[in-house]
Amino acid sequence: MSRSSPRVPGREIPPGQQLVRSLRRRPRLRAGLVQLAYVAGAVGAAVLTAEIQAGPQVNAARTSNLLFAVGGGIISLVAVVFSLLFLTVQFASTTLSPRLNLFRDEPLVWHAFGLFVGVFVFAMTAALRTSTREQMSVVIPTATIVLALAAMAVARNLQMSAFSSVKVGPTVREITHRGRAVIDQLYEQRTAEAVAPSTPAAAREEVRWLGDDGYIRQVDVQRLFDSAIRHQGTIQLPLRPGQYVRHGDVVFRHTFDAADADAEDLLRHIEIGPDRTWEQDPLLALRLLVDIGLRAQSPAINDPATCRHTIDAVSGLLRYLADRHLTIGDITDPGGRARLVLRAVTWELRRCRPRRTHRSRPGHSQRGRQARRRPR
């Protein structure tokens, strides 16, 4: 069910337009590309420094042995550091939540591995490039030592970050911080009463997902809004970011003409992956906090203090939401016509029927007492 977009009198930018500007699909940098950039930079730097002939020179044979030793030591450092990190991540996943991906998605992990490989490639390339010479520039060993020290500093920061990720306090604080960032991005302060926009037209066409199953990670609201304006129609999203999509599920409904409808163009504006992400999912922080609290309450861990800590964090996020406009479902154009209808998270409560157990079944207790009194 669609919700009205809050329209505050006196604003230059309507809230719907501001939401369109903020909810853009952010491109993800692949870890492999980042590390490849480090390797390419290391090769280029080694080739350029090897050609330096001016300035102080050192013995090439002895310095090459130093470079080979630094390269071998970096490989050993990589093996030790990432072995410890693997154990740390496994411990955090077992103790806190298997859906907790704070440390896994930390850019420091990508850059650390890229820097380690870059130092190794620089040392090896420079050593091989100057191995047939009698002299080499002092810039090469100096740069190698500086890079090795930088790699050790990054390794220390990486280990400190990993150790913090297994502690309850820093983890809950980071989850709460990211949850508030998503709330600030999606919901505005409650400064006036919401005014309902015009009722959107009934959708005529459906677009179904034909790829692999997964969670909705991001929706490019900006491009969808532009597409709706261009076709003078309305686009409806029956699912929100964070929900699971199966093969054949409806992900878009629109009022475009059949000749103008392009399902592939709409599907390019939605990202679906194997797990949930932080960018547009306001419930992910609550989900992770609940996971940590339930796992702390299990008989295997039995940590009431951690459970209370997560309850306090959940109540803090809810209080942070209390003075926000949650009715952001309909995004209108400057003329007041609904162009994009989102399924937003609101304060609406669902009535749940209490589950009946065997103790609550009529006559169960009487039959139990009669069975106990029956002579054997």
Rg of Cα set: 29 Å
Strand content: 5-15%
* Succession of helices and strands: HHEHHEHHEEEHEEEHEHHEEEH
How far the N terminus sits from the C terminus, by CA atoms, comes to 60 Å
* Biggest β-sheet: strands ordered side by side in the sheet: 4-8-6-12-11
| Number of DSSP-assigned strands | 12
Count helical runs.
11
Average pLDDT number? 78
Q: Describe the sheet with the most strands.
A: 5 strands, mixed
Low-confidence stretches: 1-15, 357-365, 371-376
Q: What structural category do the secondary elements indicate?
A: alpha+beta
Apparent shape = extended
Question: What is the percent of helical residues?
Answer: 40-55%
Task: Please name the defining characteristics of this protein.
disordered N terminus, 376 residues, alpha+beta, 11 helices, 51% helix, 5-stranded mixed beta sheet
Topology readout:
Layout: H1 15-22, H2 31-50, E1 57-59, H3 60-95, H4 107-129, E2 135-137, H5 139-165, H6 168-186, E3 188-189, E4 205-208, E5 214-219, H7 221-231, E6 235-236, E7 244-245, E8 250-254, H8 263-267, E9 270-273, H9 284-297, H10 304-321, E10 324-325, E11 330-332, E12 338-341, H11 364-373
Parallel strand pairs: 6-12
Antiparallel strand pairs: 1-2, 3-10, 4-8, 5-7, 5-9, 6-8, 11-12
Helix pairs in contact: 2-4, 3-4, 3-5, 4-5, 6-9, 6-10, 9-10
